[in-house]
User: Fold this.
Amino acid sequence: EAQVTQNPRYLITVTGKKLTVTCSQNMNHEYMSWYRQDPGLGLRQIYYSMNVEVTDKGDVPEGYKVSRKEKRNFPLILESPSPNQTSLYFCASSRGTGDTIYGYTFGSGTRLTVV
Amino acid sequence: DQQVKQNSPSLSVQEGRISILNCDYTNSMFDYFLWYKKYPAEGPTFLISISSIKDKNEDGRFTVFLNKSAKHLSLHIVPSQPGDSAVYFCAAFHSGTYKYIFGTGTRLKVLA
Assistant:
């Protein structure tokens, strides 16, 4: 089954404790992205990647890191989480780079709480 | 600065009638526009897209209209069904920057 798998689904952590949210897709998609969803703000792009070893900042990158060492994986790293990073996070992947973009396939989400 | 705006947080429609969801954008350089549907506790699901060189795209009950001069797009659902009740997000893609920006969403409720 074609899918984007992100783990964990739920995570409660303490301020300052490094964490990684994993994301993997099995569709050989070039384009991958991380979003956070907050009430009244919709989905805001954190980081995106057009292909292996190519990443760039979205609209809200502060406090986050990503890497794209393999095509299928795009982990989101919070080096020192803070309470304002409490949110619902989605990983997404899509075929296409350059002039054409296709619809995303989204993961099921990771609800992160930082206390 | 919100580049993609959905000004109606919610919409209620009777089953069988037309649902019209609206979206405005500010950047005329966007190349593609897309609509997604999201149910609670799930990730968004892609519905339909339109290239900036077109003004209409249709897929079954879903039609997206693009008015470039007004920087406005809309999603029409005809006929609306109770299973269409969800949050709908519009999104815009800019091939120059590869940024993919979402609106804030509109919650649609289809009443049986």
User: Anything to note?
Assistant: The interface with chain B takes residues 4, 31, 33, 35, 40-45, 48, 50, 56, 58-59, 90, 92, 97-109 of chain A (CB under 8 Å).
